[in-house]
Design goal:
By secondary structure, the protein is α/β, with parallel strands linked by helices. The chain has one domain: Rossmann fold, CATH 3.40.50.1820. The chain has an 8-stranded mixed sheet, with helices on both faces. Helix 5 links the parallel strand 5 and strand 6. The longest helix has 27 residues.
Amino acid sequence: MRIIYRILFVVFCIITFVSVFSLSMIATLSEKWEETIRYLKVADSNISGEIYKDLKYNDIDDCGYDLYLPAEKKHHRRYPLILFIHGGSFVSGDKNEGKDWCKYFSSKGCIAATVNYTLHNEKHTSDINRMHNDIKDCVQAIKNVCDSLGYTIDEMAVSGVSAGGCLAMLYAYREADDSPVPVKFVFQQSSPTNFHGRHWGFIEDSASISFASFITGVEITDSMIAKGIHTKLLDSISPSCMVTRNSVPTICAYGPHDRIVPPGQKRLLIAALDSCNIPYHNIDFPNSGHTLANDPDSMAAFIRKTDEFCRLYFNTKRYATE
């Protein structure tokens, strides 16, 4: 009977975490978001390049991407890629959330894409490593399609919001050198950086273990805990634990009123970047929570900083200044 109760408690913890994480984000969205992202809006006349919708990168129904090409195509020119990864607590969200970002960067002369990946929901059982592999497959597919269209991409930046920003950091920190397109920097908003239970308010009990099992996709056993294997598993999916002296420059943005991603997540990332002397820039949204919807001036500063990083870390002649 005790075993049954423990199983039920574990299931309850997973459902509670997923539900609170996803529903809280939906509940905090507001009309102020439109004001916040107005700095991304570009005139339609600046977006005359082709847009390819719902391209596939594997056989999973939900796994696709939208590709935004710049208006101007020059022979023998190489282009940078900006890849946007949507948020949604790893259980929801859609690539359409990245359309304004893609339009903005394609208007600057970049190739841009926004991607769907395998979510953990009633249709699929997924975890961070599977999602990470989806992103890898997508980058290769983007490169192949661009090659076939006559666009050569030789450098990229990865971006995302919330869960998408976590996946962006994992790709940037894990794959910077091995990526089909070398990663030059990463920029993210309100993203988890460390999945050890203590950093989410869990103590080392069944709740913490159920959390670790859900996020890693590996059933954590008492034996694994005794051997410290679960710690290594959590390290391998935590961006702040993946930072090394060879990691790429990083832009991050957080709001102190975030009720979804604990404020300590920002501190863990910044401490890791500082310890490895990695160039980074943090932008605070002092009046905002998870959606960063109450500080449009901070969003403008965030976008200006991404422009600056594009000019600094990409070939400067390729990126429009206006």
